[in-house]
From TrEMBL:
It comes from the Bacteria. This is Pentapeptide repeat-containing protein. Signal peptide: none annotated.
Length: 220
């Protein structure tokens, strides 16, 4: 995913010409394939286990409700807002999420593979015990995001701010933190094995790393 340009317009999607407008009468259809969810609010909607394939979401708002165990394959989200929604145990494959906001979302035990988050804000999102492979957070702001117990492989954060991020008991493999413009970890310093950082980041993290391993630093 990181080597491919992120679609910024719906016309950039390879399946753009095949998309058909969504209507509320189709809400509980399954699967949702080749559907364009354009605008509108989905308040307290429950679509547990639904499947979305080669579909687009633009300017849509999801508040409350449940998308638990849903499967999103080759979908594109643009200017979408998801607040207080249960999307735990969902699967995201080969997808792009652009200029969108996730706040207070339960996203634990998710599978996220070959997904790009671009210019997104994630606030209070719970990714505990999730599995992420080949995921890019590009120019994003992650605040109080919890990766506790998650497995992250080939994940990168170019241009992103990580603020009060939790990594307790996470397992990292080739996680590239070098491009992060802010790196503020609240927990999980012991889990940084498998991460790639710059020399400057390592120096900034040194006091917390020392404290987490019980090292006392004294000049006298």
């Amino acid at each position: 995913m990181s080597g491919r340009p992120v679609p910024t317009e719906i016309s950039d999607l390879p399946y753009a010409e095949d998309l058909r407008p969504f209507s509320m009468e189709q809400l509980h259809d399954d699967p949702h394939e080749g559907v364009h969810f354009d605008g509108g609010g989905f308040d307290r909607v429950h679509l547990t286990g639904a499947r979305f394939i080669e579909s687009a979401f633009t300017s849509a708002r999801w508040s409350g409700g449940s998308l638990r165990r849903c499967r999103f394959t080759d979908v594109w989200l643009h200017t979408v807002r998801v607040t207080g929604t249960d999307i735990a145990e969902s699967v995201w494959l080969d997808s792009s999420i652009v200029d969108s906001v996730f706040a207070g979302a339960a996203s634990f035990d998710c599978e996220v593979r070959r997904v790009v988050f671009s210019s997104c804000k994630l606030d209070g999102v719970n990714f505990r015990a999730s599995r992420m492979d080949d995921v890019v957070f590009e120019d994003c702001v992650l605040t109080d995001v919890d990766f506790g117990g998650a497995s992250l492989s080939r994940v990168s954060f170019p241009g992103s701010s990580l603020r009060k991020v939790h990594l307790a008991k996470a397992k990292l493999r080739e996680v590239d933190l070098r491009g992060a413009v802010d790196l503020d970890l609240t927990s999980g310093f012991e889990s940084l094995a498998g991460a790639i950082v710059t020399r400057g980041q390592l120096i900034a993290l040194a006091p917390a790393l020392a404290a987490s391993t019980g090292i006392s630093v004294r000049d006298e």
